[in-house]
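My current task is to audit a protein record that another person submitted. I need someone to confirm that the token line plausibly describes how this chain folds. Take the sequence as given and treat only the tokens as open to question. This is what I was given:
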Amino acid sequence: MRLRGRVAIVTECGRGETYGVVWARALAREGAAVVVADPERERAVGVADELSASGAAAAGTVVDVRRRESCEALVGFAAERFGGVDVLVNTHHLWHDLRRDDASDEYLHEVLDYNAVSIVRTARAVLPAMRARGAGRIVSLSSIGAWQVGGRLAAELDRTGELPSVAYPASKVLENGLTRFLAQAVGQYGITVNAIAPGMIASPATMERLSAAERDAFVARTALRRLLAVEDTAGALLYLVSDDAAHMTGQVLVVDGGLVMLG
């Protein structure tokens, strides 16, 4: 088990077979003690109870990544329950509840804060615990939305004459940039910072938010010609949080079946 004796935080589990749930299971299978957090305590505790029932060390708690004190309380909870923190996995992001038609400045700021600026908040919160360990791994959930939006923005602009919402892709571009900046800042303490950018994944949010035609259009442009599953990204996560990736930092690892590379 690659993560035996290590403590991992997952910042959001969400509804159904989400990244938070699937990645928490993967971390637990590799021996990590997992703290599952979510804005809704019942969801976090439910996932933690599932992990515990399988024999893993796990605990659930609530977090609001928009608030610095809540992020600090999450790290304190992990340290109290399991003695420290080695891994931070930022799975929180606005996508399932994204208002794709809201082009207001206020909503742009909200999405940028929740999807991107928040990873600075969680990194600040976890930094003292990781420095105490002399090492750490931070991995955030990005998206190919930083590169690909499927032509929707141009089509909407042409149809309505108004620039549609750019909140989601802008948040992922910012998140990717912050990943590099954080990596540069904390590398001196043995802490790596990376991100994973999934492609067209059959997550609950994708299946709900995108039409079949939109999903098919993305899949047709990939090299593998298939819709990926959330589980297809778990190997990338385990690599980035393991000792195998000790010298990999500031990177955004694209797991998309060959979409971005084809342009």
